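Researcher: Re-running this chain for the archive, since the previous output was lost when a drive failed. Same request as before.
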Amino acid sequence: MSRFLLAQVTDLHIKAEGRLSYRRVDTAGALRLCVEHLLAIPQRPDAVILTGDLTDFGRPEEYGQLAQWLAPLPMPWYLMPGNHDSRDGMRAAFPSHAYLRSGGATIDYVIDDWPVRLVALDTVIPGRSGGTVLPAQLEWLEATLSAGRDRPTLIAMHHPPFSTGIGHMDDIGLDDVAGLEAVVRRHPQVERIIAGHLHRPISTRFAGTVASTCPSPAHQVALDLDPAAASRFMMEPPGFQLHLWRAGRGVVTHTAAIGRFDGPFPFYEGGRLID
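Model: Regenerated structure tokens:
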């Protein structure tokens, strides 16, 4: 397999049937459109990873709705918790997803089924919006990455390991990242760190690789770089990301907007650029 296409979907915030998130956002309808889009794009992803905030309150009925809307996906899909989720609720709702129970108290796991290793790192602190990576998790990550030094690797997290400039989100971001940075820097096979939480596409250099966040299929955090900006969201175009790995070329990331748009239209006609 000389290429691998991974779709990243994040921050779904699924509510119980018929309920709107923040009294405004139809998150179930947004996920339905996202799944339809994933099934309709020209190159169907090999796998999908959902990087947290799968539900709004981690309730069983919310996970029931999530399972219903994800069921049409024919490719493997992998779940991760965010600060709005319940680890126990996820494990109970998705018993066939054995990897959810492979990491002890936290949901840390490795998927080795593809040419790119997927390493999921659970950053959730129960009852808090911000995140952390525990010392035991850093030890696990070091051992996991050391066991696959010759394998290109993506690390997936919910909380991004960098400050974004969106003050109210940075206030509930990942705490001390020095230990994580030291581990990742020792492993150049890490092609990228992909995260959620921000409801926006943001990228930066981190520990010798690239770290990025992904838009939500529902609502986006307002782009306001005032450190004292209010915590608000926007109904900007929804989206997801496609991470394309090709042998010898590494990973390139595309942000896809969800919706129905005019086109595609040709640039050329009869071998000539259309005037």
